[in-house]
C-alpha cells in the first residue's frame, strides 16, 4: 500500500490495487493468437464483476483494433 500512497503523493492515480482488480492482456499473449479480438472476447466472457479490461498496444493500428473490440483501457508499450 505504501507504493500506492507514493503514487498519489506524486500526483498520479492508481487504476487498480492489485492484479485481481482487472484483466491485463499483454503483447506476448497476443503473439500466440490472431490479433486482439479473441483475447478481448475471452476477457469479456471470463471477467469477474466489473473488472477493467486493459490491453497493451504498440501502435495506433493496434489501439484502434483494441478499442473496436471492447478494450476499456490501454497500456502503451514503446
Q: Classify the helix fraction into a percent range.
A: 40-55%
Question: Which regions are unreliable across 5 or more consecutive residues at pLDDT < 50?
Answer: none
Major sheet: 3 strands, parallel
Radius of gyration: 14 Å
Strand content: 15-25%
SSE sequence, one letter per element = HEHHEHE
Q: Structural class of the secondary structure composition?
A: alpha/beta
- Average pLDDT confidence is 82
Distance between the termini: 28 Å
Give the strand order, joined by hyphens, for the main sheet: 1-2-3
Number of DSSP strand runs: 3
Shape from CA axes? Answer: globular
Q: Count of helices?
A: 4
What attributes does this structure have?
78 residues, alpha/beta, globular, 4 helices
Overview of this structure, please?
- Helix content is 42%, strand content 18%.
- The protein is of the alpha/beta class and 78 residues long.
Q: Would you spell out the secondary-structure blueprint of this structure?
A:
Blueprint (H helix, E strand, L loop, with lengths): L1 H8 L12 E4 L1 H5 L4 H11 L5 E6 L2 H9 L4 E4 L2
Parallel strand pairs: 1-2, 2-3
Short description:
By secondary structure, this protein is an alpha/beta fold.
